[in-house]
DNA sequence: AAGTATATACCCCAAATTGGGGGATAACAA
DNA sequence: TTGTTATCCCCCAATTTGGGGTATATACTT
């Protein structure tokens, strides 16, 4: 049937693969096409398989990780939706996967309804995520309320983090270049660093800005 | 009942307010506390109302916008979950609201199940979002496939955008300082800019990196 | 009243960075 | 063969950076 969404699985756990296969096969609007142990195998069959959706494990035994695989797929076939399935919910992994182009991020589950709902949400143009992942993604936008920096210092550091120079910061905040320098000196001493990039790195990792 | 989540509404549409009020009142685990036309009013009663959740309209008639209101609430009462309800899904508004500290973002609907599901998801530690919003948030992580920059140039520019200097970029990419300079010169000529901050601004706005 | 934090501004100085100019090699693709 | 990419080198002037000071005014806390 033409309207069916073609699904390919990249997952090296035999049991989970069978499980997903059965779930997908039981729904008319999705077509189970194939499954592979590794990205390498999947990629060599991609033109034949013509998937609309790839369900991708993030930790694979092959040489190419799920994240690298996602990056590759999205660069060559941007129309394919990649949904990550994983047991890990380490924040850096999640964000890397999303940056690599993943359209959704599910924690592994053998629950039939959950998977089908996620595929439906994808079809509606959504981005299926488990609750915990959604929270992490949203948290990524929030800033830390315990920042040692004053509001003005945050203003300055945000601009520095955008690549602005002392004088550009000064112009944008309507203060003198010397004042922006003073702010930066104070930021450095509060954060115990002594360069722009260290300050940005620390402030970003602790979400001070 | 002590386990009930206390909900306050900030919404200036009379009809929608009544509608939400009824929906919340019909579920035992949520307690409708109060509703207000404006952030100003809501804030002056916040100590009395002690909300766990605030449903906040984003376009309000009062002087304080929903986004400013969210920022204020999260700075004073970080434990309160703010969920935005809106008809707008302009991407900048969404991201601003999330950065301001919103825990969820719903497009207005009079659908009972949708609202209750969202509140439940919030209680489970999730971040309720309508499909379209989830897609936008995820898209925010993706990079533009039509970037004129080569992969290596993107690597360089990403590091520059993190505040790294020419020499730091060189060290991190195991190339000489001169090479990183050459890459940057090429980036500038491709993007038609002639400074770090212009390059970062353009590349970010077009999601080249 | 004294102390602390914040925001503003100025001075000096040496070292590093930046942006622009040039040229070069090698690999690979169209 | 021309174009793109990735790598490296030299030169140079202007700007930026980071560190050292000092100073004033406001505001909040104790």
UniProtKB/TrEMBL annotation, chains A, B:
Membrane-traversing stretches: none
PROSITE patterns membership: HTH_LUXR_2, RESPONSE_REGULATORY
Keywords of this entry: DNA-binding, Phosphoprotein, Transcription, Transcription regulation
Lineage: superkingdom: Bacteria
Domain (HTH luxR-type): residue spans on this chain: 142-207
Organism: Algoriphagus confluentis
Domain annotation Response regulatory: ranges: 6-123
Protein name: Response regulator transcription factor
Transcription found in the keyword field: yes
Organism placement in taxonomy: Bacteria, Pseudomonadati, Bacteroidota, Cytophagia, Cytophagales
SUPFAM superfamilies: C-terminal effector domain of the bipartite response regulators (SSF46894), CheY-like (SSF52172)
